[in-house]
Design goal:
There is one protein chain. This protein is of the alpha+beta class. The chain has two domains: 74 residues, no CATH class; 42 residues, no CATH class. Helix content is 47%, strand content 14%. The protein has a two-stranded antiparallel sheet. Strands 3-4 form a two-stranded antiparallel ribbon. Strand 3 and strand 4 form a beta hairpin. Bound molecules: zinc ion. Zinc ion binds next to loops.
Amino acid sequence: GLVRGALEATAGQRPLTDSLRTRLNELAASAPVVFRMTGDGFLEQREQSGGADAVLARRTLVLAAGPDRLRVRRCPAPSCGMYFLARRRDQAWCSLGCGNRARSTRRQPRETETLN
Ligand SMILES: [Zn+2]
């Protein structure tokens, strides 16, 4: 519920409600990430404890408030509704399959009208 609420607000480019934000912040606080540099000079992230809910809350915060927040969308295709990260500014559907299904559903009413 928390994740859905946060992604729904983010996809609609609305701020999260105070209660959503507070709850996600609290949950994510129990799954901190530690950064370290490896021997060959690369950056490594290590998760410090935290349950699955805490990790999920942290990842939701990254999507809702991170650099990709403007790319979060909800697929409007019939029987989909999945959240996805848009690769292009004008990308409306999560996949080619959803785009094709949405377009064919849109065409159907016109075909019915010609039959009447
Ligand atoms: Zn879809």
